[in-house]
Write a structure and sequence with these properties.
By secondary structure, the chain is mainly alpha-helical. It starts with 8 loop residues before the first helix and ends with a helix. Helices cover 71% and strands 3% of the residues. A two-stranded antiparallel ribbon has the order 1-2.
Length: 156
């Protein structure tokens, strides 16, 4: 293996230290450790998703008040913020070894949110019942990822 001179010496020392600690370890970790920053990021993102969808549910129109009057352009900043949070969660989860379960779960959540965003961008009014179903689905997905972190915290 040839190392290029552009590689910083501190990076080489860090990799060497990581390898020596990893090779000297007495046990193999099957899952990553609990990450409080990741856990708090999940909570923040869930609240932002819930706030957006609740706003859409509350702002109704139509003959039976069964359609959201919110427009995508009015909520574009909220969608952007949530997408950035989800990207950060994928990155944070991916930074830990043996954490593919959390990475995959957040990627699934990210995909679900992107599908909802695409629906909202399409311009047709979203029915309140549909938004409520989406909110339940998002909460279920967030709960699943949070459950993984809680089990890590408990050492299971």
């Amino acid at each position: 293996m040839v190392l290029r001179s552009a590689v910083r010496p501190s990076l080489i020392l860090m990799l060497a230290a990581t390898l020596s600690v990893g090779l000297g370890a007495c046990h193999t970790m099957l899952v990553s450790d609990y990450d409080d920053t990741f856990d708090q990021g999940l909570v923040t993102c869930q609240k932002d998703v819930a706030s957006l969808l609740e706003k859409m549910i509350e702002n109704t129109s139509g003959p039976d008040n069964n359609v959201s009057a919110d427009t995508y352009s009015a909520d574009a900043d909220a969608y952007t913020k949530i997408n950035v949070e989800l990207d950060g969660l994928v990155t944070r989860a991916g930074a830990h070894a043996n954490n593919m379960q959390s990475v995959d779960a957040v990627k699934h959540l990210q995909h679900s949110f992107q599908e909802f965003q695409t629906e909202a961008k399409a311009g047709s009014a979203l029915h309140v019942a549909h938004i409520k179903d989406e909110l339940k689905g998002f909460n279920d997905e967030f709960s699943a990822v949070m459950a993984i972190e809680i089990l890590k915290k408990q050492g299971k």
